[in-house]
Design brief:
Blueprint: H1 9-24, H2 26-37, H3 40-72, H4 74-95, H5 108-123, H6 131-134, H7 138-156
Helix pairs in contact: 2-3, 3-4
Length: 158
């Protein structure tokens, strides 16, 4: 929303940089949230819906953005498209809990059953003692290279 309100290039750069900083935390946060709410059997489907939400949103928002630019201009397009996100943030803040045990809408037996299943899944996971060693792992290096390659290819074709 703030992008549509500024008329100074320095402020625009600051706003867009801060947007990138904030957006960089969204995906890891959502993955953590999903891991706290969904069992291992359900998690891949939940992650798929999360990840597919981005391209689906781009499809319909591209049409809406084009319509808004033609109708009200680029500044108002940013304002109108930012408004639902801000309204949604307040709903999210009040409705979404970090863990099932904090949810008021879930019955106590359901909370306990889900918590038990999630705790049992965690028992088989070894604790990470040395994060530096993970960055030396061949699998991690290959996944990082794959991500960089994908990002470069996306930038080339957009």
């Amino acid at each position: 929303m703030a992008t549509g309100m500024v008329s100074n290039i320095t402020l625009l750069i600051i706003i867009r940089f801060m947007l990138g900083v904030v957006e960089s935390a969204v995906m890891p946060s959502m993955l953590i949230l999903l891991s706290r709410w969904f069992t291992k059997a359900e998690r891949s489907r939940a992650n798929t819906f999360l990840i597919l939400g981005n391209p689906v949103t781009i499809l319909w928002m591209s049409i809406l953005s084009g319509y808004l630019i033609n109708s009200v201009g680029w500044r108002w397009m940013f304002i109108w498209e930012g408004l639902p996100a801000i309204v949604w943030a307040f709903f999210w803040w009040h409705l979404v809990n970090d863990k099932p045990k904090d949810a008021k809408w879930l019955s106590q037996p359901d909370k306990e059953a889900l918590d038990l299943v999630l705790q049992q899944e965690q028992q088989g996971i070894k604790p990470v003692k040395n994060y530096a060693a993970a960055f030396k792992s061949k699998a991690v290096i290959l996944l990082c290279l794959q991500l960089v390659f994908r990002l470069v290819m996306d930038d080339m074709y957009t």
